[in-house]
Structures are given as C-alpha cells and as structure tokens.
Specification:
- The chain has helices at 63-77, 95-104, and strands spanning 38-44, 53-57, 81-84, 87-91, 108-111.
- It is of the alpha+beta class.
- It has one domain (31-111): Translation Initiation Factor Eif1 (2-Layer Sandwich).
- The radius of gyration is 19 Å and the shape is elongated.
- It starts with 37 loop residues before the first strand and ends with a strand.
Length: 113
C-alpha cells in the first residue's frame, strides 16, 4: 500500500462538514528527574522464541529521553535491544549490570527475579 492511500493517524479520511475541526489531545509528557523514576527490571522470555531479554519498565518521560537511556544501557551491557512503548529491552540476562548502572547514575530501580 502506498503512502498516498493511507489514512491519517487519527483515522479520519475525509469530512464534508465545513465547520469540522480535528481535536488533538496531545498531553505533554515531561521526563521525571532520575531520582523520581521508579524503574523495574525483570527477565522476560515470553513471545521471544525462548530467548531471554532484560526488560526495564516504568520510565516516565519523552521518547527521545527513553531512547537515550536505552542506548546508554545497551552500550554498558555490550548488547543489542530496543526502546519503545515506555520500556527498554536489552538482549540477554543483564539484570545485575543494569541495576548497578541505574543505581550508580541516580535512578531508583528494583529487580524482579
């Protein structure tokens, strides 16, 4: 399907009402300070073909800040992964490394086994 034929993100295709206005509910999410972030670290293998990943959840902030934190954690662990949907996924079991890095850099984190 080409880009020309795709509907808008809000699902609106076309309106014949001349007074119609698109209402955009964009809540501005600001990144909390590091000390107020309550991150949870756990090992996850579900829906990943048995591969273990370290899952960091609970981040409250903007997408660029989430991606930056994810990049720093992946570099520290020497592993791949991704940062999306308010969670960071680091490939492999790096719970201890991630927890130590977060505590060292002023975050509050807890580890679930």
């Amino acid at each position: 399907m080409s880009k020309k034929n795709k509907a808008a993100e809000n699902g609106l295709v076309y309106s014949t009402d001349p007074s119609f206005k698109i209402e955009e509910d964009e809540a501005v999410v600001e990144t909390l300070p590091q000390a107020q972030q309550k991150l949870r670290i756990r090992l996850d293998t579900k829906h990943r073909a048995g591969k273990a990943v370290t899952l960091i959840t609970g981040f409250i902030g903007t997408v660029p800040d989430l991606e930056e934190l994810g990049k720093k954690l992946k570099n520290h662990c020497g592993s791949g992964g991704t940062a999306k949907d308010a969670e960071i996924i680091v490939q492999g079991d790096h719970r201890d490394k991630v927890l130590q890095w977060l505590l060292k850099n002023g975050f509050s984190g807890s580890k679930k086994i």
